[in-house]
Every structure is written in structure tokens, then in C-alpha cells.
Design goal:
The structure is a single chain. Helices cover 86% and strands 0% of the residues. The longest helix has 30 residues. By secondary structure, it is mainly α.
């Protein structure tokens, strides 16, 4: 089980680094909402290794059988390695490539809110968002948030993959 997790997790980690950094670098001129969609598509693409890792374990290691529980464990562990790759890519981006990302994101979000909310709602949201950015806007926390997001999506993919691939 360990070799399957490390093999497919390493593939996903490398894919996470490459795909995520590529989408960030090549998507510079795109809106933040488009970049966000691109980011999620990148995560799901990297997490495809979860399905293939579970399938490999079932077919080549465990004599053609796998339980839903074992599939979820394998998938989440692979997802954790993918999350490390995406988290590293996010940390590199927010510290080396674009250290002003948090401020740019805050300004863009405030402009969008100003156009869509009433004056009172905007002022309340503005204070709230600025406080959140002060509390959580560091590169390390953002990288952890990306890691957590990948693992959470990976859990869902693991569950679906386990349901599809389970055999007793």
C-alpha cells in the first residue's frame, strides 16, 4: 500500500507543482474568478492520480479487491501528497512570484463588492474582509488553506473512486 501511495502521490505532487504554477503564470491577464476556476480545474486534474492509485492497488496489489474504507485511506493519503505540491506552488507564488497577491486580491474583491452591495453592506463587508486578510493573509496560511482544500476535494474524489472501484 505504501508504494502505491508514494508512487501516485509523488506523481500528483509533481503534477500539482507544474500545473498549478503554469496556470498561475500563464493566467496572469485573466480575471480572479477565471483564475479561481483554472485553479480548481488544476486541482482536480492533479487529483486524478487518486483514482488511478486506488485502481492500481486494487488490480495489482490486492488481488482485484478493495473495500470502500481502504480506497478512501489510499485516496486521502495520495491527496495529501498532491496537497503538499499545490501548497508549495502557492507558497512560491505568494512569496516569490507575486508577493503583493493578498493586497491585489483584497483590492479586487473590494471593487467587486462596492459595485454589488449597498453602501452600508459594503462598509461592513470591507471591515470584515480587511480583518480576515490581516488575520489570515500570510503566505504560510494561504499555502495551508490550499493544502486543506486539495485534501478535502481529494476526499470526495476518493469516496467516489472507492464506490466505483470497490470489489469484494
Amino acid at each position: 500500500m505504501k508504494s502505491t501511495i508514494f508512487k501516485y502521490g509523488f506523481y500528483g505532487l509533481i503534477a500539482g507543482l507544474i500545473i498549478f504554477l503554469s496556470s498561475i503564470l500563464f493566467g496572469k491577464g485573466l480575471s480572479y474568478s477565471t483564475q479561481e476556476i483554472l485553479g480548481y480545474v488544476s486541482m482536480v486534474a492533479c487529483l486524478s492520480f487518486v483514482f488511478f492509485g486506488i485502481k492500481h492497488y486494487r488490480d495489482h496489489v490486492n488481488e482485484g479487491t478493495i473495500s470502500i474504507g481502504k480506497a478512501i485511506v489510499i485516496g486521502v493519503l495520495i491527496s495529501a501528497l498532491v496537497g503538499v505540491g499545490v501548497g508549495i506552488a502557492d507558497y512560491i507564488y505568494t512569496t516569490l512570484i507575486n508577493p503583493d497577491f493578498a493586497n491585489e486580491y483584497l483590492e479586487t474583491s473590494l471593487k467587486t463588492m462596492e459595485n454589488t452591495l449597498s453602501s452600508q453592506e459594503f462598509q461592513a463587508k470591507k471591515v470584515e474582509l480587511k480583518q480576515q486578510m490581516e488575520d489570515y493573509g500570510g503566505s504560510g496560511f494561504m499555502a495551508f488553506l490550499m493544502f486543506f482544500t486539495v485534501v478535502l476535494i481529494g476526499f470526495v474524489i476518493s469516496l467516489i473512486s472507492g464506490l466505483i472501484l470497490q470489489r469484494k
